[in-house]
Request: fold
Amino acid sequence: MTKHQVYLSLGSNLGRREENLTKAIQLIAERVGAVIRQSSFIETAPWGFHSEHQFMNAAILCETDKTPREVLQLTQQIEKEMGRKNKTSHFYSDRCIDIDILLYDDLTIDEPDLKIPHPLMQERDFVMIPLKQITNP
Reply:
């Protein structure tokens, strides 16, 4: 079975942020695939909206046999199980967990609900700083 490399970005700014990230990473490892690399957790300001709550962010590299669409469905299910409310691409708000697909092998996908590479990742330090930790180990 072919293994693919998928880079994911995680963020949390509600509740016990570090525990939320750790739980999400454990669920991803169980359902998506083995976590090969994990960045440190970094604290960042909200992006795209105002909030009194700072974010904790991380990035991980998974090895998966799932398709990009399956990875999207699995990560959205994890978000929902952990208490994430409606996720839309144009609505930024406080959240207990957010999981975004950044890269999947060297694929480019441009569908309404699935864009790889993530279109805004270069603009977001909270994505790029952890991502650089695991792409240049």
The first strand starts at residue 4 and ends at 12. The radius of gyration is 14 Å.
